[in-house]
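Deliverable D5.2: sample structural annotation.
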Amino acid sequence: MTASGIHHATISGLTLPGVPAAPGAVLSATGRVLLQGEEFTVTPELYAETVDRNGVSWLDLDADAQLAKWGEIRFAPGPRPDALTFGGDDSSYRIRQWQRDLAYAQDVSDPNERRAALARVRAEFPEFGASHSHTLSTTRDRAGF
């Protein structure tokens, strides 16, 4: 085993395999798809699940080898750098974050604090623009949506 320790996903969509729950188990429910910036620890069990029939693990690929194999760098060793936004390349993740933060800001009862909270949301999510600062409905319509 070469790769070990903490790594981080440089793009959303990196899929980690599941570690079998029991020796000889065929299926596992622990596999997951990571968001950009999400950290993971390479354990001996995780590493073993990435070894192919030739005894090679994709976790041993350095940045140049990842570019040659996939045309992009999907992961890097070490913790997430501060400059790498968590989930920043996944628009659906950003939209859910924005909706959550907008709903919280709109629930602030004091008008001055609400304005400040909404300004923080607009500053953090400039890609959604001022036109999207309308009230987010959290109730279902008659059709159930």
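Annotation notes: The chain has two domains: 5-77, 91-132. Residues 21 and 143 are 42 Å apart (CA to CA).
The annotation will be released with the project's public dataset once the embargo ends.
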